[in-house]
Design brief:
about 700 residues; eight-stranded antiparallel sheet; about 10% strand; 25 helices
């Protein structure tokens, strides 16, 4: 009985994550309950991982890598290696002695490795790298046989057989060869030659039965002439039989005079369809079909062709055709029509019997099938060549994938980026490391808002070969005072390419506790500032209006001076009311300030700072508490789920870890800073004088109330 694998876990993101350190850990993943996996699937595009490797793992080709596909990749790679620890090296270099040749597949892979190295002039090499596989496609294209079972015309040395291969393509279509050429495969070849034999056997039946071709080589044309009028002649003789049955039917069956009147005003021709619906000739009991000019003009030429190609060769030269003779003629062609009905469906008839006989009498079928077999005989070798590349990629990438799939070890340990992190955004004196690629900003934002993080969506453009892409960057430190739509920054992708980043959308959430603490005061200052600006703007507007009115009035007064009016009397009551209102306002403000000051002065000297701190806490603490709960519960999962991941855990980003994901602008260690600003604003001394005066007054008040021991 095999002992159970011992797992190691590490805490990160608010939950325990599995620690994968060895090949044994990789092979044992199949036994680890998937409820303990961080992710159950991820997209094959939009992440920082080799897409070709992901496509190899994505066995069903649906654009998503799932847990079972990861396990299948690990199991396949592990079965080809003597020691699974090779998979954790993270390199694309594979030593030949690490390949397990105890299995048939392992032997094929090892043989392919040696064949590749030999073709590269490195027959004595003891290892192979992914770089050695870069030209492997060219190597495969250069092979005469590549294992796909498709033979192109250029591979057939015999010109006659090559022409037959072209006939197969012409009649049955083609298959694509790995080299890009069109050719034929076993199915197309088999169908082609089966149709050749079927058509040849059917055609040979006419030579065995003389009744099939009553007129020899002219039978086909004669049968066509007969078929062209058969239904119409049958119609004529049936009408004559009805006239024999009842003489009264003869006249209406020949069509009444009124039926001809509709043509009186028309321009008629021998192609008129309505005329063609009339009988071949006038109907009478037992009447033969005349073969002279008394026929329906629409059918005259076709009956003449019937007479020339069928009736004269079989019956001789006659001026009319009786019903009995007609039945005899049709009986002569019954075997032919039955033979035609038995003709097998095929696409080879256009080749003609001469060419069909020529192909069947040759050895082309055997030659083409032999080439196809030779091509398919190297199928396992060619597949093994592809398996070499696959094994090299798995050796390099599988360990990286599981540490960003089964666990988010790279992301939470902070040493390396997670594969979903596509670069770094520099904006507003900060660098954001948690940046994910986004296809649809609106769709992503609708779900990613549940993450509780401040997300800034940017449209990134790069003129030199980069195109355009969208990203979502998480701001997890600092504040949002100057984050706004329209701002520009620089985004560096993981390859070091720089992109112009323009903010197109922001999901506003708390960024830091410091921001939350000062947010009430900033809001208050902002509100006061806005009100003052509005008041100043309104006053300025009023002044401008008054000046304009005064100018207009003055111009009017100059143009037409009006008689002087009496100066209005001074309204004492009005100004008394204004001064009273001003006094009340000043008194109210003074009362509030006096209450505050008296409250503070009633405290002991050392209690005043604590009181001020208490007031600030009363104002800021609710905002800080709310922000703390939101920051504590920030979740990475909605951001990745919105990108097509299936995240299986509540991957939290707490305050300390979040702070590490956004770098703030700081001076380098050891940097010197000059305190002289040549363009600094000149500082007035009046504020200092005012502070000194207020300080002196405060000391006097405190002394008066006995804070300094005065009785």
């Amino acid at each position: 009985m095999t002992a159970a694998h011992t797992w190691n876990f590490f805490p990160a993101g608010g939950f325990d994550q599995v620690q994968i350190d060895s090949g044994a850990d990789l092979l044992a993943l199949k036994d680890l309950n998937q409820k303990l996996w961080v992710a159950l699937s991820c997209p094959t595009r939009g992440i920082e991982f080799d897409s070709k490797t992901l496509d190899m793992i994505d066995s069903d080709g649906d654009g998503r890598v799932r847990a079972n596909e990861v396990l299948a990749a690990i199991a396949w790679a592990g079965s080809l290696l003597k020691d699974a620890d090779v998979l954790v090296s993270g390199t694309d270099c594979l030593a030949l002695h690490d390949i397990d040749d105890s299995t048939q597949e392992g032997q094929h892979v090892l043989a392919s490795v040696r064949h590749i190295l030999k073709s590269l002039g490195k027959a004595d090499a003891l290892e192979i790298t992914l770089e050695d596989m870069q030209d492997i496609e060219k190597f495969l294209l250069a092979l005469r046989y590549n294992g796909d079972g498709v033979i192109a015309a250029k591979q057939v040395e015999d010109a006659a057989a090559s022409a037959t291969l072209e006939d197969i393509i012409k009649c049955k279509g083609s298959a694509a060869d790995l080299s890009g050429e069109v050719g034929v495969n076993e199915a197309l070849t088999l169908a082609f030659f089966d149709e050749l034999r079927g058509y040849a056997d059917w055609s040979a039946a006419s030579a065995k039965d003389a009744a099939i071709l009553p007129l020899g080589e002219g039978t086909s044309a004669a049968a066509a002439a007969l078929a062209a009028v058969r239904d119409k002649v049958e119609d004529y003789f049936t009408r004559c039989q009805l006239a024999a049955y009842d003489a009264r039917a003869a006249e209406p069956l020949s069509r009444a005079v009124a039926d001809y009147q509709q043509f009186a005003a028309q321009n008629l021709s021998a192609q008129n369809a309505e005329v063609g619906n009339f009988p071949l000739a006038t109907v009478a009991a037992g009447k033969s079909l005349p073969l002279d000019g008394t026929l329906n003009p629409v059918w005259q030429s076709r009956i003449e062709a019937l007479n020339v190609q069928v009736l004269r060769p079989l019956l001789g030269d006659k001026s009319s055709l009786s019903a009995a003779d007609w039945q005899t003629v049709c009986g002569k062609f019954s075997a032919y029509f039955a033979w035609q009905a038995a003709k097998p469906a095929n696409a080879v008839e256009p080749l003609g019997m001469k060419r069909i006989t020529e192909i069947l009498s040759s050895s082309h079928e055997a030659a083409i099938n032999d080439l196809i077999k030779q091509d398919k005989s190297v199928e396992s070798e060619v597949k093994s060549i592809h398996s070499v590349e696959k094994l090299l990629r798995y050796k390099r990438d599988l360990y990286l994938l599981v540490n960003n799939f089964v666990s988010f070890r790279h992301f939470y340990r902070g040493k390396d980026k997670g594969i979903f992190q596509v670069g770094t955004l520099y904006l507003d004196r900060r660098s954001c490391e948690l940046c994910v690629r986004v296809e649809d900003v609106a769709k992503h934002a609708s779900f990613a808002s549940l993450s509780g993080m401040c997300l800034v969506y940017c449209e990134c453009t790069r003129k030199t070969g980069g195109g355009k892409m969208n990203i979502a960057a998480a701001f997890t430190a600092g504040d949002a005072d100057f984050l706004m739509v329209g701002r520009n920054g620089i985004f560096y992708d993981c390859q070091g390419n720089d992109w112009d980043a323009n903010v197109v959308r922001i999901i506003d959430n708390p960024i830091s506790l410091r921001q939350a603490f000062w947010s009430p005061y900033k809001k208050m200052v902002k509100a006061i500032s806005e009100q003052i600006q509005k008041l100043a703007a309104s006053k300025a507007s009023a002044v401008d209006s008054n000046l304009q009115s005064a100018v207009v009035d003055q111009s009017k007064a100059v143009a037409a001076p009006a008689p002087a009016s009496a100066k209005p009397a001074f309204d004492v009551a009005k100004f008394a009311g204004i001064f009273a209102a001003i006094g009340l306002a000043i008194g109210a403000i003074g009362g509030i300030l006096a209450s505050v000051m008296s409250g503070l002065l009633s405290l002991k000297f050392w209690q005043i700072p604590f009181a001020l701190v208490g007031v600030m806490l009363m104002i800021s603490l609710p905002a800080v508490a709310l922000a703390w709960f939101k920051l504590k519960n920030r979740n990475l999962a909605p951001i990745l789920d919105a990108n097509g991941w299936a995240i299986n855990a509540r991957a939290k980003i707490n305050i300390p870890f979040g702070t590490s994901l956004t770098g703030m602008a700081r001076l380098p260690d050891g940097a010197s800073r000059s305190l002289v600003d040549p363009f600094a604003e000149e500082k007035s001394l009046w504020p200092f004088y005012l502070i000194i005066a207020l300080g002196a007054c405060a000391v006097g008040v405190l002394w008066y109330y006995g804070f300094f021991g005065h009785a």
